[in-house]
Amino acid sequence: MGTVPLPPELGLDTNLTAVGFRLNRDTRPNRFYPTDGTFLDFTADFFSPDLGSKYSFQSYKFTFNKYWSLTQNQVLASGSFACFTGGEPPFYGNCVYGTDSQLRGYPAGRYLDRYMLGTQLEYRLALPKRFGLVGFGGLEK
Question: Mapping DSSP to helix (H, G, I), strand (E, B) and coil, where does residue 14 land?
Fold first, then answer.
């Protein structure tokens, strides 16, 4: 008994090639457990058949995080992010909710959209013996 062949335009065999740029600024003293400073990241990618890409679309992503030390063991962190796509992206080229540490606790890939806006706030408490407690909440559009 043979297997049924996949439809030719299912989109499983694709090439995505882009040219783009990135702007990044990081003033955090420690990127693994920041207690102070800011992190800013902006990317713009332009996918085109002229570059070897199967699809023609644009992707823009912006992230800004800020950290405050409340006491030696307490940190308050905020994060804001935006994602926009233009043109005709494949479904996986759209903004994916719940990825890149955005909207913690949100299942990644459950929702895709052409745009995404969100913000989150997080309280961190360092406890003895390398334990910790975190509370967080977020909003998305």
Answer: coil
